[in-house]
Amino acid sequence: MPGETVDGGFDVLQLRRRIDGIDQSIIDLIRTCKEISRQVQRTPTDVGGPRVEPVREAEITNNYHVPFGDAGSALAAALLRICWG
Length: 85
Prior knowledge:
By secondary structure, this protein is mainly alpha-helical. Helix content is 76%, strand content 5%.
């Protein structure tokens, strides 16, 4: 409801709009990451190498796991699937 506030006087709809903007930024960043990932994958596969590097994927998963725990690991796995192309 417009004008609805939470502790501290924040308008809930305004906060939700901010979250929506952040979500859109995340979507845009994932799209950019996916395109860059495709470029990175092309070089090794063009010379017969692997498309995926397990050590690199473990590093990425750990980067998300450290701040967010198991949910971060799941998020990293989803992002890796999206960016594999």
